[in-house]
Design a protein that fits this description.
The complex is a heterodimer. Chain A has no helices and twelve strands. By secondary structure, chain A is mostly beta strands. In chain A, the strands form three sheets. In chain A, strands 2, 5, 6, 10, 11 and 12 form a six-stranded mixed β-sheet that branches. Chain A has a four-stranded antiparallel β-sheet with strand order 3-9-8-7, with no helix packed on it. In chain A, a hairpin with a 5-residue loop joins strand 5 (31-38) and strand 6 (44-50). The chains are: A mainly beta, B mainly beta.
Chain lengths: 115, 114
């Protein structure tokens, strides 16, 4: 079964600095990988996904993520953080080897960007 | 295009009661999934529907059930509520059934069981 780990519960960065939110995954085959963001009292918003092709994926709000198959990682990055990026971030994975498996989410990483 | 809508947004029930939550997907989306979100367990998958058929089910007791209608709208029902059912219930829709499709989430229904 597929699983995903977000090793950091909390990430703090200063506004204007680069940010990284880490994600590692485990699947028996090849993965589809996703990042979502959740603001307070809201549902999750889709940021970006990796399906195939270029390992660097660009998404909404200036975010990007790099797929690294050898390290089974899919870290979320942004060159310059904004205070408004403060939110809860979720990494998710689906194993493309199986037709009807569900999307598995990590526990989430709370990003705080300080002015 | 309107997003995923969920009703009601907030709900307070007592133990032993049952509850029905509703979800309207984005227009044109045919797959609907439900998740339970709690601080302790994170996001837990409940079930996924496509073409009025349950395609996948998470590890929840039979008290949790759902259905999808011909217009892709979905409902989930929880019977004999327990205190531990207090959670944010999220509905998500996607264009079709398939692992590559991203899901679009509604704002959730906050269920409190007393």
């Amino acid at each position: 079964a597929q699983s995903v780990a977000q090793p950091e519960d909390q990430v703090n960065v200063a506004e204007g600095n680069p940010l990284t939110v880490k994600c590692t995954y485990s699947v028996s085959g090849n993965p589809y990988l996703f990042w979502y963001v959740q603001y307070p009292n809201r549902g999750l918003q889709f940021l970006l996904k990796y399906i195939t092709g270029d390992n660097l994926v660009k998404g909404s709000y200036g975010f990007e993520a790099e797929f690294n198959k050898s390290q089974t990682s899919f870290h979320l990055k942004k060159p310059s953080a904004l205070v408004s990026d403060s939110a809860l971030y979720f990494c998710a994975v689906r194993d493309r080897s199986y037709n009807n498996n569900d999307m598995r989410f990590g526990a989430g990483t709370r990003l705080t960007v300080k002015p | 295009k309107a997003g995923v809508t969920q009703t009601p947004r907030y709900l307070i029930k007592t133990r032993g009661q049952q509850v029905t939550l509703s979800c309207s997907p984005i227009s044109g989306h045919r797959s609907v999934s439900w998740y339970q979100q709690t601080p302790g367990q994170g996001l837990q998958f409940l079930f996924e529907y496509f073409s009025e058929t349950q395609r996948n089910k998470g590890n929840f007791p039979g008290r949790f059930s759902g259905r999808q209608f011909s217009n892709s709208r979905s409902e989930m029902n929880v019977s004999t509520l327990e205190l531990g059912d207090s959670a944010l219930y999220l509905c998500a829709s996607s264009l079709a059934l398939g692992q590559a499709y991203e899901q679009y989430f509604g704002p959730g229904t906050r269920l409190t069981v007393t």
